[in-house]
Amino acid sequence: MAARRKQYKLTSSSIRSAFASVCTAGVITVVSACAPAASGVPAAAPLDHSRLDARLLAMVDRRERDTLLVDTLLLVGESERRARAALAIGQVQMRARYGALRRLLVDSDTAVAANAAFALGLGKDAASLVALGRAVAGAPDPVAREAAWALGELGDVSRSVLSLALGEGSAQPLLSSTAAQRSGLVRAELLLATVKLRAIPVTLLTPWLADTSLQAVRAAAYTIARPRVAAGVRAMLPLARHRDEIVRQHVARTLARTNVADSLAARAREALVLLIADSSALVRANAVRSLASFGPSVLAEMQGALNDRDQNVRLAALEAIGAVFLRDPALWRRAWSNDTSFVVRRALLVGARGAGSDAYAAAESLWTRASDWRQRAAVIESRLRDPKVDRLKLARTFAADADGRVRSAALSSLDTIAITDEGARALLRSALADRDPQVRSRAISALARTPTADDLSAVLDQYAAVLREKDDEVRGALLRYIARTWDRDSARVNSVLRSRLSSLAPPAAASERAIAQRVTPLAAWRQLPTVDAPRPAADYERIARQWLRRGATKPTAVLHTSRGDVVIELYAADAPLVVEAFINLARTGYYRDTWFHRVVPNFVAQDGSPRGDGSGGPGFTVRDAWTRQRHDRGALGLATAGPDTGDAQYYFCHSPQPHLDGHYTVFGHIVSGYDVLDRIVQGDRVRSVEIRS
User: Fold this and answer.
1) CATH top-level class for 541-692?
2) Rounded Cα gap, residues 379 and 386, in angstroms
3) How far is CA 347 from CA 11, 185, 344, in A?
4) What is the pLDDT of residues 561-619, one digit of tens each?
């Protein structure tokens, strides 16, 4: 193995040589990685391709590595099947076939080659550095684009390749570099890849801000703006009047005071004043955040933002200026009177507390007694902004609230303190029997930060009920408590508790059993299957025949929201199991009268929590399905709390978010209703989701 790794250790000269050979020839010799489709297949025994589709779908879903199946599909499959097989190698980290992927980079079928490049990025295969560099230089555009993305995923090991491709050492990189010879789409991906390097090569990026390709300009601006590279401020300033609103969004983000040298502060402020009056609300949302960072000197300009016609811009302004401006009671009361929406008033309430103002007192008192649970929960959030607040007293005050969402928020008051106070532990132990599963989950999680055998009996009292819960969050919290108690305090787990542990019925899900696999009294669980029970083969076959056959109709969904309708095309061929889950939930009414519980202006709008507070779920999880679909404006993505933890929650992107590509599942895209998306604020409702196949 050591010798093999050494084979791919590159020097700057070897990288330059590889690029030179490709660029001089101008082409890549195409060598087929696969034999003709009919090779080796007896005519009397034709393969059932739809069944192979189903088997590959099952393999990826189970995160298994069936090399024979993959090899068969690469050898005899049609274009779509070969492409899916190539992608699957990266999705399940089938390292034994990374060499095959490198050979597929020069496949005559660009869909196959592009998926191979993307899969190598998913696998972060450093041994593919030279092959990916060659693909960037000479492969067809779809392949070169994915190869550029993959180089970014490799991180700093790709620095020399990316730098050379973008024109390092060239007097005219926009004319004579490898990137200059490629399409704007490939150039853009090369530029985006550099954002994943430990130190952004700003001097290589800034010339591309003048590129003739809008895609490349956007990418260069994004790469400077996302990490807020101070060295790029001077080059970004002239783009404040750029014709493209996405470029202006990046300019607005770059110009925060903490990122701007004193010598450029006046120019940056002047540009931001221009941008907070921009025609695009998305630009204005970024601009108000950056302008607020200049402090009290921009009070007059920021007051205009507080009256912006777009509610999300007003919200962004309030969240940005709270700690600086909301000490002024008159300004606070004026803003409170001018906007009666919950989301803005919540920001005012929380912001005033954070600013140390007492203007909020009367409003907070009213909200404490409000009928809307969201207002009572907002009071908890507001009081937690006060560093002197008695968190235990606050938790006790709201722990008896009639609404479980408020009780859950009350227990969050204890999240940042060590649960050593007996009064706090007593409150949490009493919450273990709460009728709301999320309250129980919150209590168990809080106790698990400092677990002791003293509380184990009370936790185990809830085990049987929790095991029957539909909500897997509660089961996970309880099992983590057991595991942590055993790790930290097993010496004090007496024989009675050990007996109770050994008699616990195992959870059905192998992933849940694995949480407590180190607990000795639960040793019998280790004899059970280590992977979750798979779907029936017929289920995978049905889905494969419905969504993966050539010519299959793309399903659409219509979100009927309180702001209007949003029409979405679902990518069933790319993420069939995710789309299947979404469609089933929609048809059973799961998304009826849900809330957009998370809206971050000019980032995402997220729905799928029927409780409206971001917690809860349908009782199952969906695995990620990473594909070449990008997080551009209007992308529909699967929200997760970690790898393979998706369920019912989804999000829409307000603007391109390239850093999410290949890390979250994109399973659809807005067809119409962008104006509705832009108007949605936290707390808006999804009336229903209608599926149109």
Assistant:
1) mainly beta
2) 11
3) 53, 40, 5
4) 999 999 999 999 999 999 999 999 999 999 999 999 999 999 999 999 989 999 888 98
